[in-house]
Specification:
- The chain is α+β, with helices and mostly antiparallel strands.
- The chain has 3 domains: 14-168 and 242-308, BirA Bifunctional Protein, domain 2, CATH 3.30.930.10; 170-223, no CATH class; 321-398, Anticodon-binding domain (Rossmann fold), CATH 3.40.50.800.
- It is 36% helix and 23% strand.
- It has helices at residues 14-32, 46-52, 58-62, 82-91, 94-97, 136-152, 170-182, 189-197, 208-213, 226-242, 286-289, 304-308, 331-341, 356-365, 376-381; strands at residues 36-37, 43-45, 65-68, 74-77, 101-110, 122-131, 158-163, 247-248, 260-267, 276-282, 297-303, 321-325, 347-353, 370-374, 383-388, 393-398.
- It binds one RNA strand of 77 nucleotides through helix 3, strand 6, strand 10, strand 11 and helix 12.
RNA sequence: GUGGGAUUAGCUCAGUUGGUUAGAGCACUGGUUUGUGGUGCCGGGGGUCGCGGGUUCGAAUCCCGUAUCUCACCCCA
């Protein structure tokens, strides 16, 4: 038997109902915020992800589905959605057009990881990207939008938020931080590596000893420039005013290198170890970094499989018609009448001649609202016998 | 990449110290005598016991390997 690859799965039955319901609901919400659909390829040039997500990230350094195609191109299944959208934004010269551009997307992402609860090698994200808005208000808008989505599905969450500083305050801070780290000998292996590649990620280290050693370290939030400082406090004030509760987490650094300033994560305790249900932040440098004109940008992504664990689809109840025949002569008539009814209703039919009882059972099993039957009597009188399976009432309809 | 647990029917699981033809519940399917569904009763189909080796007269059961699932580390959505 040929099976799905490790960490991949089919979407069927219960899950596809949830999936479609989720996408539909999210789309409605983000449309209200002025976001339009964008579709980008699943396969992209490997260089795109190396440059945007960052070589120091786990995603690029060990989780990419990367291969050489028949044309000798180094290509990659996308591990996340932002890089492709930004590439498209630049390639289509929207940075030159100027103005504001807001997109949403959804679809499969690929990361070669060890599967566990809430973590798959092919998984799906719903995300948005907003280009051309510099104001901190946009950061709040994005967070509010996620809150709207989570609230719609009655999902409980904790919002973790941090600021990573900007071009002005980050470089000097990094220098100071590295100088401090150089005085420490006992840092773990990973942190030694981080020191060279992306030093602020040491704050994210789970090693207790490292956290202990880092206590006297210079801190990000004590080294913001004025703009970063005021933007961040304005965001928090506005969140307060909107009644959105949050926890400032100075160690929230995030694994993708392109974030700057606002970074946030929505976590839920109902998810197990992989508890991030949505995450995102501002990435004001990325457009320029991918060859475009400097453009402010911010976005987020929701992990669909993770959120689907927590949502319920409203029950549908009985709907539509089930058609069946009681004798051979009626089958063709049933086929025709079912087809007519399909102009206005959901209709399924049985091709087998069965007893009335068997047809009723089948209709019931399919959750049909009406069971429509033609037998010898009906054929003679040119009528269809129809039973409403919810109301238990019966009527006869004429046909020609 | 590292560690723990698991794998027997479509699903959830029994299966004794290794011993005849591997079981149950649910699901599926048919019947229950005149054309009335969900919940009664009776019947039926469905398993190379994850896969590959080994030990043994004999393996679902013991040993080795391997795959997958699962949970955690790590990382993230």
């Amino acid at each position: 038997m040929i099976r799905t690859l490790r960490g991949m799965k089919d979407i069927l039955e219960d899950e596809n109902q949830k999936y479609l319901y989720f996408i539909k609901t999210c789309t409605q919400i983000v449309n209200r915020y002025g976001f339009e659909f964008i579709g980008t390829p699943i396969l992209e040039d490997t260089a795109l992800f190396k440059r945007s997500v960052g070589e120091s990230s786990d995603i690029v350094s060990k989780e990419m589905y990367q291969f050489i195609d028949k044309g000798d191109n180094d290509v990659c299944l996308r591990p996340e959605g932002t890089a492709g959208v930004v590439r498209s934004f630049v390639e289509n010269k929207l940075d030159r057009v100027g103005g504001v551009h807001k997109f949403y997307y959804h679809g499969p992402m690929f990361r070669y990881e060890r599967p566990q609860k809430g973590r798959f090698r092919q998984f799906h994200q719903f995300g948005v990207e907003s280009f051309g808005v510099d104001s901190y208000l946009e950061d709040v808008l994005i967070i509010k939008m996620i809150k709207d989505i989570l609230d719609t599905f009655s999902i409980k969450y904790t919002l973790l938020i941090n600021s990573l500083g900007c071009d002005l305050c980050m470089p000097p801070f990094k220098k100071r931080l590295v100088a401090f780290l150089d005085t420490l000998d006992a840092l773990c292996e990973d942190c030694q590596k981080r020191k060279r590649t992306n030093p602020i990620r040491v704050f994210d280290c789970k090693n207790n000893n490292c956290q202990e050693l880092l206590k006297p370290s210079p801190r990000l939030n004590e080294n913001f420039c004025q703009k970063c400082e005021s933007d961040f406090s304005n965001i928090l004030k506005l969140l307060d005013a909107l009644g959105i509760s949050y926890q400032v987490d100075p160690n929230l650094v995030r694994g993708l290198d392109y974030y700057s300033k606002t970074a946030f994560e929505f976590v839920s305790s109902d998810l197990g170890a992989q508890n991030a249900v949505a995450g995102g932040g501002r990435y004001d440098k990325l457009v320029e970094y991918l060859g475009g004109r400097k453009t402010s940008a911010i976005g987020f992504a929701i992990g669909i499989e993770r959120i689907l664990q927590m949502i319920e689809v409203p029950k549908k109840g009985r709907v539509g018609y089930y058609f069946g025949a009681l004798c051979d002569e009626a089958i063709d008539v049933v086929f025709k009448e079912a087809d007519k009814k399909r102009a206005t209703d959901k209709v399924t039919l049985s091709y087998d001649v069965k007893s009335l009882k068997a047809h009723l059972k089948a209709a019931d099993k399919q959750d049909a609202r009406y069971c429509a039957i033609i037998g010898e009597d009906e054929l003679l009188n040119k009528e269809i016998w129809i039973k409403d399976l919810s109301e238990k009432t019966e009527v006869k309809e004429r046909f020609e």
